[in-house]
């Protein structure tokens, strides 16, 4: 595979200089060049109205229809099932037809422009089709991660006001069957009469039969066969919402991040091409679930807007035997492979011999997303999987940013292991101290972004005040990322982790308040605290401290740990289950009653000194007691 890249350091400098000199002209040209508009915008950024505000377009038409005249027979999706011989390939023309049929099914269910449709599916083609069908008719999709519990799903369905749900009979994860429909039914029962859901459409992933509620539930396949494959795309304003996606925050209630149409799609297309050096012959595989923003921007939208061929894989990295991912790469000639540090570390633990069995010579660009990648994993990924020839693009970004913000650009930016490297054109990161003062040169501080960019979220669903308070009021004049970072003398960035109360477990952002709210339902626990600590595999592991009510029987106290694990698995999801639960007599607090998570993190990491001045604590004696309890395991 050729290792020549589209950009050189010189051409990249011209690009970055152009956007810095005249961002309005640069982004207006990019918007016109990258997208097909039913009414072309005359301005890029309007401070009052947003990006490309006077333009109209349709996201689905930009991902599908525009490619039909010249590239209709090009493969859009390669879907690899769990079984090696179960492969589905869809051309852009075939995908377009299926999306149109699905869109007509949604319209027959009464879905209108601006309505919300919840999508709760495993890794099947119907997930992408459902997202594109919603975009086609102007409905907002709300994709729900398959690992959510019934209660977590119920919260999100209720908040979004979804009128239709698309789910599966079951999902397949190795030998396990994941009860998608059963979980959704439980979620809707929790909502009861408050549910806004009128229809539940069920994708048959397997032959398993599931109960169907008369008048509400229907199998999707017969409806698709009867539907027309002709559906004109709805012309949307560029600032109309495209989708709603929930992310955990430092409050107990998950935040519904809203992304627009024109700006988001421009940014997804721009960053996909730039960061991954996308070329027409590439086979692009992003392993992210579509329930996360990575799956939105770099599976469902960016690559398809750029006319790419994407690969979807139903299975697991090492099932039925280690090396399954490498087998898929070799079989389908994958050129671009984008995954998480957690997955990389897990695969690295299997040794070098397993990937050595497969021909990975098709690879030319590797990518990492979801959390900072450590030096050892970066080196293994680059040397063993990429053969030392493939650049590793370690991308930093968030649900709220819509796409990559800081990343290596192949051919143009020099790699530094474990560094996210440099900001992309149009991104202006700054480091601030705790007082909000800018830090110059080599420094470490709070990472914020100056100005706007096309992919920036529009708002938080039904709570713009919270959107402003969370992201723009902490440091006026800046977008507050919630992350800390270190910048070296050459301007390279290393992300150091969260500075708020959000824990990043295997790329899943979990609000500490969300965990603590779940635990609060255990009546024998008076209070709790959830913190994140470094984890070799997951990036961060979740540690929970619980304080039982006084006077509890020892047998009851002994059972509290198991109760905590169960309730977190039930109310949040199995992915959020803690590594350890410590039963403690109290939590370290300030005199105003605020938990000092900094101390709890240090103690959970095994540190026994260097805590600084403890005299400001209301209960300094608790610190050595926590050290003792954690030390005893």
From TrEMBL:
Domain Acetyl-coenzyme A synthetase N-terminal: 20-63
Molecular-function GO term, any one: AMP binding
Keyword ATP-binding set for record: yes
Domain AMP-dependent synthetase/ligase: 65-452
Top-level taxon: Bacteria
Gene Ontology annotations of biological process type: acetyl-CoA biosynthetic process from acetate
Ligase found in the keyword field: yes
Keywords linked to the UniProt accession: Acetylation, ATP-binding, Ligase, Nucleotide-binding
EC number of this enzyme: 6.2.1.1
One Pfam assignment: AMP-binding_C
Domain AMP-binding enzyme C-terminal: 514-594
PROSITE patterns listed in its UniProt record: AMP_BINDING
EC top class named in words: ligase
Xref: PANTHER family: ACETYL-COENZYME A SYNTHETASE, ACETYL-COENZYME A SYNTHETASE 1
Family, per entry: Belongs to the ATP-dependent AMP-binding enzyme family.
Name of the protein: Acetate--CoA ligase
